Amino acid sequence: MHSTIFQKSSFTFLLVILLLAFLANNEAYAQRTTFPTGCQSIQTYKDYFNRNLRYLSDVEGIYDVSMTPNYSGGNLYFGVQKWGGHELGTTAVIYKNNGDSYYTCKFLFSDDDLIDKWNFGKNYFTFSPLTEDANVFRVEGKYNEIYNHFGNSGQLLFNISTRTVWNNGVMKFSFAGNDQFHKVEATMSMIKTYPTPSQIINANTQQPQQPSNATEEWSGTGFALKNGYIVTNYHVIEGASTITIQGVKGDFNPKYTAAVVGSDKVNDLALLKISDSNFSGFGTLPYSITSSTSDVGEEIFVLGYPLTSTMGDEIKLTTGIISSKTGYQGDVALYQISAPIQPGNSGGPLFDKKGNIIGVVSAKHAGAENVGYAIKSSYLRTLIESCVSASIIPTNNTVSTLPLTGKVKAEKNFVFYIQCSSSTNMISTSSASRIINNPYVGSDNLNDEGNNTLTKISKVEITPSYTSISFTLRNYAWCSISSDTYIKVGDKKYYLTRIEGIECSPNRTYPTRVGFDGYSLIECTFYFPPIPSNSRTLDFIEPNSRWQFFNVSLTN
Fold this sequence. Notes:
Layout: H1 2-24, H2 27-31, H3 42-51, E1 61-72, E2 76-78, E3 81-83, E4 88-95, E5 103-108, E6 124-129, E7 136-149, E8 152-165, E9 170-178, E10 183-194, H4 197-205, E11 217-224, E12 229-232, H5 234-237, E13 242-246, E14 256-264, E15 269-274, E16 299-304, H6 308-311, E17 316-324, E18 334-337, E19 349-352, E20 357-364, E21 372-376, H7 377-387, H8 404-411, E22 415-421, E23 434-437, E24 441-444, H9 448-451, E25 454-462, E26 467-474, E27 486-489, E28 492-495, E29 498-500, E30 513-514, E31 520-528, E32 537-541, E33 548-553
Antiparallel strand pairs: 1-4, 1-10, 2-3, 4-5, 5-6, 6-7, 7-8, 8-9, 9-10, 11-12, 11-22, 12-15, 13-14, 13-22, 14-15, 16-17, 16-19, 17-18, 18-21, 19-20, 20-21, 23-25, 24-33, 25-26, 26-31, 27-28, 27-32, 29-31, 30-31, 32-33
């Protein structure tokens, strides 16, 4: 009996192993989530692609589309835009549902509108692969468009069946439509803008995400700018509820809280700022950041904190050369480098032989040895200038004449270990925590009545780990928040550490929901360091803004 049971158990175990192996090799089938139905915002589609990065084919993503018409007749009004012999711009998403042998292409209006001028869900194309590598497609679809021509209305009929080649994110094809009076020929060009090649590489070199109810912790590398600002990759801090910095001035004992003040998702860059009241500055930075493009063959070195769980938390040095001025699939924003990099190096500085920073380490090629990628520093400069100012960029190199050992010794104190967590519960459950719902506000500078808006502080939460203030915003066309926002208790200021629901300036957040009263609705929460548990009032201040609330009551 024991032997029989063992044989059955072994057989069952074998089946389980085979099933797991099948699922592991068919992740797209087992794990891909359903594409959102109906008319959605661009951000919704970005979220979908982010969740499914590990399972996407190259062709799937968001595309910038331009269509150049060539027609016989006068000006035709297509949808909400006029075809007057000029280019018509729009956005498209290409995706594949489970079980489909083809890809679906739907067209959107713009990044900020939920309106679809191409009758979302009715007019779409299908892209069917004609080759095994899925680079050549049969494009098919029907498209009917109402026009208005010198007071006469009609409908152009497009029956599309043509071929196109996908080449490093670019496709181009032509089609024609006509009625009894007009004929329109159009050339469509599509350029993939999201997700980026580096996002796909990183997704396929990272471990699968844990269930959403589990706390995740991960790490990366960053480096110092002036005035408490830090650079890292966007994918390092994406999804983080808490961000801490270690290694300032070479000291790993203090942990400083940091907040995201700007990001460039397309180029995988993020700008942080230490918001901890105990932070006293980085000191004089020994390197400069140069925006000129480095040459192939130039010697480079990388500093970072890869695989700390097995390699330890001492900073690691690798060296190599610039292998190419372009990155994955010819991406001009990237360098290809030969310096070995590993998970954890992401966000670290790429130095030239003089010790200048020329890039930000971003990803490695999973299928090749010693092939890594770094974002060129000119793209970093653009982000810095759009979010803060060029004044925080270091410009004085004091290590150019030192040997490599001297450069590393001087510059490693400005390269940091960044630890991120998805948990919002670095929160104590002690009785000192309290929540004040719909607190009384003594006064504000909003002028809601004049702006026809309604702004409300819906909740204040005070814990031993943080202070949070939640808002509901009605009838706002858009909103954003300055990274210099703070709360004030007595004479002490507590600066913003994290935000949820809206983005930092100059980025804008647009409403995607409608409240019960019919007005657009935005809900957001701002996090600050903990304030004294016995505080009775606070002021919420966004400098140089009407967003200033005074004597917010902290008693129920």
